[in-house]
Amino acid sequence: MTETKETMKISRRRPPRFELIAGNVSLDFVNTLDDRHIKPKELLETYLDLVRFGEDAGLLSTPQVDRLFERSYLEPDLAERALHHGRELREAIHDVFWAVMNKRPVPPGALARLNAAAQAAAGHMHLVPAKGGGFLWSFDDFGDFYGLLWPIARAAVDLLASDQLAYVRPCSSKTCEWFFLDTSKNHHRRWCDMTRCGNRAKVQRFYVRKKGSC
Ligand SMILES: [Zn+2]
Fold first, then answer.
1. Among candidates 151, 200, 132, which has minimal Cα distance to 171?
2. The pLDDT value given to residue 203
3. Whole-number Å distance between alpha carbons of 31 and 95
4. Which protein residues have a CB closer than 5 Å to ligand 1 (ion)?
């Protein structure tokens, strides 16, 4: 058993995989369905991918990741259900933000799903004294398969109810549909990420100009 555990720990060690550029974990979560409307690429193929997202996003500590990896091997059906639930939550978050950005009516089903997830999250939250004074919200231990979805749901509803909502944008690239929170000083950020899409657009403009000047 010890050997199996050690093997699992070794097998999951890897560099960060998810590109977390959105400035809000709920938007980074939306971006785990890549090329959503063109050629969808699912980045959360297994429950372990969901755990890895939680690890990359700083939602899970190393012991919590180890525990969820171990539990998902022991209870694969429950892990699969949690993955399915996570994807449904992701799509609900996407649909609500998409409607807001496109000035369309918010789909009631998506809002209801997000509300339900936020209410479930609230049942696992505790106010605890913070170091250096004040208080902060702390979540129950994340041994629960659904635990890492709690802070994601919470981040989504907090953002929707905040004055930052106006700064949630889609990437300006025609082929990229990632969302991000524009926290730049002038709120003129256009790209999800300069290296990912900004440079690509620059190169395209350069070639268009070059072609035009020939
Ligand atoms: Zn982009």
1. 200
2. 63
3. 12
4. 171, 173, 176, 178, 192, 197
Q: What number of CA atoms fall less than 13 Å from residue 66's CA on the CB side?
A: 10
For the chain, what's the residue count? Answer: 214
Tell me which of 86 and 5 has the higher pLDDT: 86
In angstroms, rounded to a whole number, what is the distance separating the alpha carbons of residues 168 and 99? 12
Q: How far is the CA of 71 from the centre of ligand 1 (A)?
A: 35
CA of 127 relative to ligand 1 center, distance in Å? 37
74 alpha carbon – ligand 1 mean position (Å): 38
Distance of CA 206 to the CA centre of its chain: 33
Instruction: Check whether 118 has a pLDDT greater than 60.
Output: yes
Mean pLDDT on 138-144:
81
Q: State the Cα torsion 27-33-34-35 to the nearest 10°.
A: -110
The predicted structure's pLDDT at residue 200: 63
Question: Could you report the per-residue pLDDT of 60-99, keeping only the tens digit for each?
Answer: 988 999 999 999 999 999 999 999 999 999 999 999 999 9
The 8-class DSSP code of residue 196 comes to I
198 near 190, Cβ under 8 Å?
yes
Q: Encoding tokens for residue 25?
A: 């974990």
